[in-house]
Structures are given as C-alpha cells and as structure tokens.
Amino acid sequence: MRRHQFHLKNVDPTFTGTSRLHLQHKLLTRLCAMMSEGEDADRALDSLFIQESEEVYRNPTEVKMSQIVLPCHANHCGELSAGQLLKWMDSTACLSAERHAGCSCITASVDDIHFEHTIGVGKVVNIIAKVNRAFTSSMEVGILVTCEDLYTDSQWKVCHAFATFVARRTEAGKVQLKQVIPCTQMEQMEYSLAAERRRMRLIHAEIITDLLNSSTAQLGECQEYQDAVPAERTRVESVELVLPPHANHQVSTFGGQIMAWMENVATISACRLCNAHPTLRSIDMFHFRGPSHIGDRLVLKAIVNNAFKHSMEVGVCAEAYQGGEPLRHINSAFMTFEVLDSDRKPRTLPRIRPEPVDGKRRYQEAIARKKIRLDRKYIISCKQTEVPLSVPWDPSNQMYLSYNNVSALKLMDTRNNWVLTSEKNKVRLYTLEENHMLCFKVEMHVSVAAEQTFHLLSDLRRRKEWDRHYEECEVINQADEDDTLYRVATPSVSKRGKGQDFILLASRRKPCDARDPYLIALRSVTLPTHPPTEDYTRGEVLCAGFTIWEESSSVTKITYYNQATPGVLPYISTDIAGLSSSFYSAFAACSVFLEANKDSLAALHSLHCDTTLTTTVSSLQEDQQHQ
C-alpha cells in the first residue's frame, strides 16, 4: 500500500488542538476500515476525501456538484446518459477554471475518459473539479466523478478526467493566469504531472497522425467477413439548432452540450450495428477546433469505423454553420462502445463491411487506434506495482512509455516521508520502504549551473567517467530529442559472477517554468533487437533518475532516485546498511566531474539552441491549439 499523509492545512479555524488530532485519527480510522473491506488504497483515499474534504481541506479552486439521477436523465435501460454526465462534468470543471482565472473560460480539450461503471436512476452523481496547474493562459482541471448509493451509504469511482480550459481575452487583452500553489502532497503530485500531460497534449495530434500512417501502411487490405453489416447502415446525421438554453454565460455553446449531442448520434450509430443498446466505455482525447454560438446549426455525423470482438469504434464529427456560410469544423471524437448481456459481460459483436476508399481508411485507422489505446491504457492507467518491470518499446508506444517514465520519477519526487539514513561530506542518503519495495535517493549540491548540470548528466555515455558501476554504455536508438535508448553494462558484484546489462529508456525534460526542475528519468524496456546474452545477466530498472533544481545561477541541487529492484539491490545494500561508502564516493566523483566540465561552452551552446527550438515549437503548438 502506498503511504498517504493527511495535511490539515487550510482547515476550518475551529479545528485546532485536540479537535485537529481527533479529526486526523478519525480519517485514519476510516481509511483503515475501508481498506480492511478490500477496497483499493487510492480509491479509498479518493472516497475518503470526498466525504471529509469539507472538514479537512478547502482547495480554493475546488467546485463540487451533486445530482440525483432522475428518469429524465436516463436512457431506456434506466442508466444515466453518458451525454448528460459529460454536460455535468464540463460545467463543473468550467466553474472551477473560472474561479481560478477570475474571468470567463472555454473548454479547449478533454483527455481520454474511461467510464468504469454505469449509473442507475436514483443514484447520486458527485463531481469534484479543481485546477491542478495554470500555465500562461490555459489551465488543467482535474475531474473526479463518483457514484453514491443513498441507501447503502457506499460510493465508487466512475471516471477520472482532465480537461484544459483557456481564459478568454478581456478588454485589457490576453489574460495572464496566476500560479496555482499546491498545499498537499496529492496536489503537488498533480501539479507536477500536469506539466507532463500538457506536453503530451501538444504533441498528441502529430504523434497519432504519424502512428496511424505507419500502422495502416502495414495492415494491408481489409478482411472480408460473411454476414458483415455494411458500414453505411450505421451512418447517422442529425442537426441541432443552438438555442439560449444550450449556451453558457458567454453566449457560446457549452462544450459539454456539444459532447452530449455527439454522444447521442454515436450511440444511435452503434445501436444500428448491434440492434441492442450499447454502453459507452471510453472517449479518446479530443480538441475543440473552434467555438459555436447561439443561432448556429450544428451538424452531427457518426458512423461505425470498425467492430472488434467485444467492442466497436464510432467516429463522430460536429460542424456548424449560419445562413449560407460554409461548415466550420467544431470537433471530432472517437468513442468506444460495448454491448452488455444480462450478466453485464460484453457480447460478441457482428463484423462491419467498410465503404470503399474512405471507409476502408477509417476501418484500418480504427485497428491502429485500438492498438494505441491498449498501449496507452496498459502503460499509463496501470499502477506502478501492476506494470512489469520491462515493457516492450516500439514507436507506437514511445509517447506513453516516455510519459510513464517521467511521471514515475515525478511521483517519487513528490513523496515527503523519506527517512535520512546517513550523511557524509554533504551527500545525504535517504530511504523509503513501501509496497515491499525499497526506494532510495541521494541528495547533494554542486557549484555548477543547473542547465549545464542537466546537459552533462543527460548523456549516459559520460556517466562511466564518474560512476564505477557503469562499465559500458552505448546508444541503441535516438528516438527523438527527449528520449534515448541505451544499453548499459555493469560489472559483477562478486569475483565469479556475471556482470549485468540493462536496456534503458532515458527521458529528459527541461523545466516548464521556474517552478519545475530539470528531469532525467530512466526505466527498463525490452527490444527484440537486443535480447539477453550469455555473457551478462539481464537486469531491470523500474524507476530511476535525476531531478536538478536551480537554487541560484551557480548552485544546483541534484537528487538521484532509484526504486530498487533485485538487480540493483546488490550494488546498494551495503551502503544502506552503513557498511560501505561506495555511493558517497560515486557522487563525490560526480561532483568533481561536473565541476571540471562546468565551463564547456560548446555543450552549453548546444543546449541553448535545443531549449530555444523546443520552447518555440511548444509555444506555436499551444497558440494553434487555443485559436
């Protein structure tokens, strides 16, 4: 179980002294009781904070909505319409964004949403939204949806989503958003991860396009199935007139309303394939291309792109026009549906026969998107303890592996229950034991600029200049400017034993702003081109890397993290037990290495060019996304 700390900051003023201790005891007691009944720690904690957050902590951007599901909100199966839920989620998140921005905000994008459960009539939907992080004029809002049964006093998670909102221009010009100040460990974690999720959003469209192009080229011709349903039969087109009730207080169509209309035509399309009521399971990440206003005619089109054994992908598009003007593309989305039997198990679906040309393209792209979706769910959605140490790497999952790599390091960095084990020559060694795994970190300061430190430590080939555990290091693949695959060999810890080798993905990140560190994240991956050999024992790294904080123009704090696996433990066990000082020697050598190379102008110039290019590209992508 992951260790959680309750921070009683910003509590009600009456909760002081004995009351505060009593409240903390009450929270811990309830958490233990929930977990003793077999509930997951994270889910129990989410549920606990939903129940107790009024007493414990008040995030200034937090907005709550509770709705009882009435028959008018439900479909003919007595379940809450996913479109209605999307409307509630969007309006709650928008109010949270506006509370932080102090001005009107619009929905720019919504990340992948996976619906874990359906919600029946009579149940209560609880939605909590809060701003995780603000950037220049955009902000990420986290949305947690739970369902409550009033008769059994039980709650469960329905979905967790992230939406990006943009502050609208005012008469004074473009809005400069104030910073979000995280106050709890959970908020610090989301704040840190928000920067990595933003990076994924900015490159998402380009990456997906490249993957689809490469994947569909390998798929060949579509398979022909007997009794396949013609895709044309599933085509749906509907028009909606945008009226004042559909608009927000800015006289623009609610993003949630557009999503609800899109879900409606997608459901009809899915139903035409299977002649049964489908259940929406997930919506892929999408961006709003432009606004819609009162008086617009919104044209919604949907078609089943492909049907797999137990699921189908429906593509849906929203376009708007007024009078005789041409159609404006508002949004496109891909929704995955299932059909459940009486035991709530997915039914086998009929196959689809795609239309010529465009239909076959959509059919093949749906196969590629399914693989991407599975990679994303497997790599990102799984908890760290549920993911195997080494995950196969290929270009189709590079973006998600990189995200997982950096996120794991950021999660380790936000933990605040490290125990100082020993200190020598201003090098500190900390440990943290949880989930039957040992984590350690080494912390020190150097008189070298943070930018130069980042560049010198980023190239693992130079690590053998200061770390005797690095015997060999070669670049296998330079995936892009931020991600590199290495093979690293280390000597044996015993005289007769074999050495170990590792296939590592190194993901480096520059700060999003002054509140972020430089990051170099490492994790093991597998490559078919580099199988284990007889000369070495294949080792694995679950999570390791450096965070580099600039404390002044010439002083940098370096922290090295490692979530120790059986392959790593032999190298560090004596240090942690206090029987050896090899780690201190290694990091003292690291300090000497950095000091000796701190004036490497060529390296610094290269990094400046790299930073300028990356910043320019990111700014252009964000501006295009928000236009």
From TrEMBL:
Q: What is this protein called?
A: Acyl-coenzyme A thioesterase 11
Q: Which domain of life is it from?
A: Eukaryota
Keyword check for Ribonucleoprotein: no
The UniProt entry's GO biological process terms, in alphabetical order, are: acyl-CoA metabolic process; fatty acid metabolic process
UniProt keyword terms in alphabetical order? Cytoplasm, Fatty acid metabolism, Hydrolase, Lipid metabolism, Mitochondrion, Phosphoprotein, Repeat, Serine esterase, Transit peptide
Q: Cross-referenced Pfam families, in alphabetical order?
A: 4HBT (PF03061), START (PF01852)
Ranges where the START domain occurs? 418-587
Q: What is its EC number?
A: 3.1.2.2
Q: What does this protein do?
A: Has an acyl-CoA thioesterase activity with a preference for the long chain fatty acyl-CoA thioesters hexadecanoyl-CoA/palmitoyl-CoA and tetradecanoyl-CoA/myristoyl-CoA which are the main substrates in the mitochondrial beta-oxidation pathway.
The reaction(s) catalysed by this protein are:
dodecanoyl-CoA + H2O = dodecanoate + CoA + H(+); tetradecanoyl-CoA + H2O = tetradecanoate + CoA + H(+); butanoyl-CoA + H2O = butanoate + CoA + H(+); hexadecanoyl-CoA + H2O = hexadecanoate + CoA + H(+)
Family matches, as InterPro entries: Cytosol_ACT (IPR040170), HOTDOG_ACOT (IPR033120), HotDog_dom_sf (IPR029069), START-like_dom_sf (IPR023393), START_lipid-bd_dom (IPR002913), Thioestr_dom (IPR006683)
In its UniProt record, a GO molecular function of this protein is: long-chain fatty acyl-CoA hydrolase activity
Q: Give a GO cellular-component term.
A: cytosol
Locations listed in the record? Cytoplasm; Mitochondrion matrix
Asked if the record carries the keyword Repeat, the reply is yes
**Which pathway does this polypeptide act in?**
Lipid metabolism; fatty acid metabolism
Q: Where is the HotDog ACOT-type domain?
A: 59-171, 232-343
